[in-house]
Amino acid sequence: MTKVLVAGDDFVAPELFADALIGAAPGHTLDFRTLRTGWPVEPFGPVGGVKEASGTEEQVIEALGDAEIALTQMAPFTAEVIKQAPNLRMIGCCRGGPVNIDLAAATAAGIPVTYAPGRNAAAAAEFAVGLMLAAMRRIPASDADLKKNIWRGDFYAYENAGLELDGATVGLVGYGAIGSIVARVLKAFGAHVLVADPYTDKDKALSDGVELVVLEELLRRSSVVSLHARVTPETRHMLNADNLRLLPQGAVLVNSARGDLLDYAPLPGLLESGHLGALALDVYDIEPPPADWPLHSAPNVITTPHLAGATRQTADRAAAIAAGEAARFLRGEELRFVANPEALPGGQRS
Fold first, then answer.
1. Catalytic-labelled residue, pool 138, 258, 317, 328
2. I need a surface site. Which of 76, 155, 318, 337 has the fewest CB within 10 A?
C-alpha cells in the first residue's frame, strides 16, 4: 500500500488528484490523505522561502504524516516541510513550474519533483486572444457604459473606432506552448504574426508561417503586442520605459503571462499620452494590485484577476499530468517532466 497526500484547493481539488491517480495506476493499493488550501479565494503568496503558495507549512506537515508521494497544486513544500517528511519519495506539482516547492531541499533529500507543462496552454492562449479583441474593440468599456444607460455612439467616429485583427501585425514575445497556439488563432483571423524568442529557430517559424525577429523590431512593427515568455533574470522587465516607446502610436499591449515581464511604472504615462492605445492585463507586479494603483484610473485599461488558466479543462488536465507522473514513479518507469533531474535515479533519499 502506498500512502499519498493529495493537497488541492478550490481549483484543482484533492478529489481530482485522487481520481486521476486511481485511473492512472490500476492495480496499486493507494491510501490517500487530503489537504484543501484556501486558494483561489485566498490569494497565494510567499511561504517559508517558496513563492505563490497557498496554506501553511504546519498544515502540510500535519497532512503529510508518513506519505511517500505528494500531489499538489499550491501547497508549500518548503525546506522545513521536506525535513519533517522522512518517508516522502516523490512530489508531483500540477503547475507549469513548481515555484511552491523548494527544489534545492528536495534535491538534497533525493526527492524528484515533477511539474505539468502545457496544462493551461489552450486556456491561456484563448484568454490572450480574448483580451486582444476586448481591447481592440472596446468591449468592456462599451458594456460598462451601456449598463449606465450611456450609448457610446462616439465609438463609431473614425478616430475612436476599433481595430481589426485581420491584416494587423501582431507581435508575440515568447513562442512556447501558449504563444504557438495564439499564433495559430491569429493567423486564422488574418493577422501577420511576428515572434521574438531566442529559443525558436527559423525553420520552425517558417513552417508555422510566422516571422522571427528580434524584440526591438517586433516592437517597432507591431500594432498589437502580447507577452508569452517565461520569467528569468534575463526576461524580467524585458518590456520597459526604453523599449516600449518603440511601439507605434496607439499600439495595444497585452500581458497575460507574468507580471515581472513588464515594467508597470511607465504605463500610465504612455496611456495618458496616447502612445499606448490600450492595455489589457491579467497579471501584475503586485497581486492583487493595491487600491491606489495608478492603472486603476488610467484610460483604456482592461484588467482581470489572473484568470487566463481558469478553465475546468485546465484543472482536469493538471491533475491528470501530475497523476500520470506519480503512476510512472510507482511502476519504476522514467519520469517525463522532472524539475530536478539530479535527484534521480530512483527518487530515493541521499
1. 258
2. 155
258 is catalytic: yes
Catalytic option among 28, 152, 220, 306: 306
For 203-237, write each residue's pLDDT tens digit.
Answer: 999 999 999 999 999 999 999 999 999 999 999 99
Which one is catalytic: 58, 62, 164, 287? 287
Is 237 part of the annotated catalytic residue set? Answer: no
Kindly give the parts of the chain with pLDDT less than 50.
346-350
In 3D space, the residue among 225, 251, 250, 249 whose CA is nearest the CA of residue 239 turns out to be 225
What's the CA gap between 250 and 276, in Å, rounded? Answer: 5
Q: How far apart are the C-alpha atoms of 90 and 77, rounded to whole Å?
A: 12
Is 275 an annotated catalytic residue?
no
Integer Cα distance of 231 and 99 in angstroms:
12
Phi-psi region of 202 (alpha: psi -120 to 50; beta: other; left: phi over 0): alpha
Instruction: For domain 2-119+311-343, give the fold.
Output: Rossmann fold (3.40.50)
